[in-house]
Amino acid sequence: MDGQQRTLTFYLIWHALQARKSQLNRLILPEFSLEIPACRMSQENLRRNYDVVEKLIDKPRSKPLEEYIDILLTKCEFVIVELSKLSEAFQFFDSQNSRGLDLHPHDLLKAYHLREFDPSEAELKTKAVQQWEQRNEKDVHRIFSHFLYPIRQWTNGEKAFHFGKEQVEGFKGLSLHQEDQFPLSQSYRILHSMVDEYNNDRFRKVDNIHLAYPFQITQTMINGRRFFEWFSHYESKALALLNPRDHDDWVEPLLTTAMSKKIWTVINGTENSKGYEYTGRNRTGDGYVRKVLNAFLLAYYDRFGEAEFSSALEIGFIWAYSLRLKQSSIYESSIENHVIGQNLFRRLDQSLRPKDFFNFSLNIYIGSNDISEKSSKSKVEGIKKLFREMKCMAEQG
User: How many other CB atoms sit within 10 Å of the CB of residue 254?
Assistant: First the structure.
């Protein structure tokens, strides 16, 4: 269950040496066969890594290559640890990978939730693994670190900028097939079972209707299959917010007011934003501000869908970007203080309908003395112009 990366690396070295047998004196390599995973991304990674291995082997060196090969073949050894129970194997995996070189936190979550699958869902478990392995690791990490983790943390009024292995506990919850019948788990068990019963009913073969599980980002996590479905539920929308140009922009079709459309074009730097120059959008601090706005938009859509979405974008923009105009330098601590100081995530979580959320005054107005010296320069001219048009900033002069 573990050690596949080391095994594949040794295999690539062996394969490259086999191709150079004629160049190396007295090279005797043991027989070694390995079944390569039928995964496109894994195979592409193997090809790239093989190129690296070839370059390292062909690199000029002071000692003969045979000496290094001898060390590899006679000094290196594998240690095999056999465990009798699957639960012990996953526990061993967690303990071994919580030290030394860090695994990605999402790798630890994958291992944990695979262990928590209902035993009757072996086929679904295999499918979940295949889908997970096809994903880009950087995208998975960004979805967790830019959306799922911050939204859950900020909603609770807690800091959220660093997502590492210490933070994975918040994504572990109830294992419904093995939990005691506590009142806490009963509503989740009913909902979980009813969704499955509906989708597996024979009438679905007639009407072809599929009932999606009603996920929420801030929900108590249901371990196993539902965790993988939960991530998939938010994946496409999160990726589109990170890069609207490379993914289907689901936000723009929901914007019904001229101001919300203008805001979206300006912060994304599209051609329609001419006259609203915002050349500083790619700076680190501006990226932090955009992270807050993106997370807020996904959190709002997760709670209220399309209802009043334009108004949510306008309020979220004023709330997030007022910090950009007030401060010349923005750090992670600046963002944490700003979000928790006037916490729209918590307000959203406490609102039962859109009108409840909007029934407050944002109380953000940028006076001439509030603008930092650096922010008053041309890198945020488009942002300042939008604030003036929205009556949230003093007019020039």
Answer: 19
